[in-house]
Amino acid sequence: MKIYSEDAYHLLHRLGATANYTGFSYLVRALQLCAEEPERLLLVTKWLYPDVAKQYGTNWKAVERNIRTVGRVIWNSNRPLLEDLARRELSQKPCTAQLLAILHASLLPSGSSTDEE
């Protein structure tokens, strides 16, 4: 799990996000939880955000809001890299669940993701 955390930190830094945002830690933890159980991406507000919130002593709405803030920073700082990770042009900023899915897929070991195209 530590290696995954380091990879997530590195990726977020490359995207322009820094640890001074509360959502940075929330996003790393959410990605760790998704690595353990990818199905969490299907129920972010009912399963993923509450689990992150529990760890940090906050509520799921604060988790979502702070991850959204980091998503906005990423969108404004390094949109080309985000589009490379998404493997497509993004016409608008992805919602938090989409951002999590893009980052999660990009952190999977090579050969672990399957293209459905």
Automatic annotation (TrEMBL):
Q: Name one GO molecular function term.
A: calcium ion binding
Q: Which GO terms describe its biological process?
A: regulation of sporulation resulting in formation of a cellular spore
Provide an example Pfam family for this protein.
Spo0A_C
Q: What Gene Ontology terms describe where this protein resides (cellular component)?
A: cytoplasm
The UniProt record lists the Sporulation initiation factor Spo0A C-terminal domain at 10-105
* Protein name in the entry: Sporulation initiation factor Spo0A C-terminal domain-containing protein
Question: Species name for this entry?
Answer: Flavonifractor plautii 1_3_50AFAA
